[in-house]
Amino acid sequence: MTSSAEAVEGLGTLEELQRRSHPVRAVVALIIGFVGLIFAIGLSISFGAADISLSTVWAAVFHFSPDLTAHQIIRDIRLPRVLGAALVGGCFAVAGAIMQGMTRNPLADSGLLGLNSGAAFMLAVCFAFFPGLPYMYLILWSFVGAGLGVLIVYGIGSLAKGGLTPMRLVLAGAAVSALLGALGEGIALYYRIGQDLAFWYAGGVSGTKWYHLQILSPWILVAMIGALILSRSITLLSLGEEIAIGLGQRTAVIKVWGMVVVLILAGAAVSVVGAVGFVGLIIPHLTRYIVGHDYRWIISCSLVYGALLVVLADLAARTINPPYEAPIGAIIAFIGVPFFLYLARKGGKEL
Asked: How many whole angstroms separate alpha carbon 21 and alpha carbon 121?
């Protein structure tokens, strides 16, 4: 039973949080981000080995002609690739926002806490022991791998005296990610599947096909709806567990469903693009700076700006050294590593 003192304290903290939220800024940021995302998608589709104008892109999308080669390139190769990049970017960013809100850990990210490496490790196991497994089962095993990764990280992190802290979680995540990465590479060498797995380890969306998107979309749609439903509760949870309980929240239920959503989003994203990190670290901090601490807006804006970041990273990966492609993971790491070091220098204090 919650005490009246906790409820009063919680209401006071909630009012302070509402004063620090900026819904007008959030709406403007959403509009700008959405327009920027549409423009980036069009630009990314038009760039490639074959020069295609934006007007041809428009015609291929809305007036498709199977007799035109340019339309076939856009419809069969570039469009699923760019939409896949947008999907996984939104997935990583929303997963990071939920993790940061639930744990009050500014360093929480599916890449830093072992989820991505767990999913990638499970893909290596599937390629080695179950070759030819349908893509639907690969996604399901990615969910299992992501869950395995987070269980090991939280298990190791909680063994230390003083319990879990943001820095301990990150250190445990780094150790578990290195271990799972080494095990995955060992499996790849022993079973000679390194060529098949190189794509997932480097990170890239070049292999994205329409059937990938058809299988992934229902999972991601359900998970995103779940994230938006949970967003108000995550806002209250981000104030502190005692305050959330004082305001009548069932924190254990919120955490379980929040983690289910995170596992689906991270597992689905890794099954497409590989173990790309830092998207879920950078974007929630950026959106929190703009819109305040209301997770209804943070999650919505993270979805749009995460998609925008990965679409632009994919465009940069293709244009830096044509006709070769740079790994998306390396492009994003150029931004993510300095940002992580900046947060770590601040001591990883609770949000």
From this structure: 39
What is the mean pLDDT of each successive set of 10 residues along the chain, which is 351 residues long? 57 68 88 94 82 81 83 86 91 91 82 80 87 82 85 78 70 85 86 74 73 88 94 86 81 86 85 79 92 90 94 89 80 87 71 59
User: Measured between alpha carbons, how far is 327 from 346 in angstroms, rounded to an integer?
Assistant: 29
Instruction: Pinpoint the alpha helices (H) of 192-237.
Output: 194-202, 210-237
Question: How far apart, in whole angstroms, are the C-alpha atoms of residue 31 and residue 16?
Answer: 26
DSSP 65: -
The structure tokens 């997770």 sit at 295
Question: Which of 157, 148, 142, 160 has the alpha carbon at shortest distance from 108?
Answer: 157
Give the integer Cα–Cα distance in Å for 314 and 295: 27
Q: Is the dihedral of CA 304, 307, 309, 312 positive or negative?
A: negative
Q: Is 300 exposed, middle or buried (CB count within 10 Å of its CB: 0-12, 13-18, 19+)?
A: buried
